[in-house]
Amino acid sequence: SKVIETHDINKTYKMGSEIIEALKSVSISVDRGEYVAFMGPSGSGKSTLMNIIGCLDSPTSGTYILSGKDVSDMSENELAEIRNKEIGFVFQTFNLLPRASCLDNVALPLVYAGYSRSDRKELAFQALSDVGLGDRTKHRPNELSGGQRQRVAIARALVNNPSIILADEPTGNLDSKTSYGIMELFHELHAGGNTIIMVTHEDDIAHYAHRVIRLRDGLVETDKINPNPTRGI
Ligand code: ADP
Ligand code: ADP
Predict the structure, then answer these.
(1) The whole model's pTM is what?
(2) Which of 229, 186, 210, 215 has its CA nearest to residue 30?
């Protein structure tokens, strides 16, 4: 089944009298369980598209269907609700709370979703265990390596069991050995049935994905299945 369908999405920004067309009639569809990389030069529209897919922003025109629901014209509040339920975000800069323990960082999305304290603990512990950090629950982010911090962020993205994991340059702040470790984890998450969309400008990172969509000047330039994705380190 399809988790994402965009139909002729346009996004324009007004800068004074200038109109910037960040996305021009972008139509893509992603099935549940796919692993997709977005590539393209700076300014090609990757962030704009990720923001729309992640329900952080709405298209100027066109339709966006997420998990069968038309979210194109939803209000900010409705989008926030959908976002909390359907999307797990992973950022280049990890975006962890420095004073909170790993367990509390991972449990945070569950607070918004209204889970009880004991359920939050249990689910956060499970998510941390799933990324190999079951023995780091009480540590704070600054007591961990960069790769471990990104694993905590990935556990936080997973804890809600979202429809999609959206990762914006997830290895952008990591050395290459650590990056490959994170890609191994993405490989396992994908093998476990998760839908993953990541932005990267690194060819060797994109090569872990099973499909690569390239943007240029707000248009989909190419959309290709990767016949032989990288598996091992
Ligand atoms: P975004 O607009 O999504 O934040 P950018 O494409 O502007 O992403 O790039 C994010 C970071 O990656 C920036 O620090 C940029 O300088 C760097 N970057 C982008 N493209 C390349 C590339 N081809 N090679 C090396 N670094 C890049
Ligand atoms: P990428 O992520 O590929 O670097 P972006 O989606 O960030 O590309 O940007 C696409 C185009 O839209 C660029 O020309 C950029 O300058 C413009 N743009 C992005 N966000 C805004 C904004 N908030 N206001 C005005 N122009 C923007």
Answers:
(1) 0.89
(2) 210
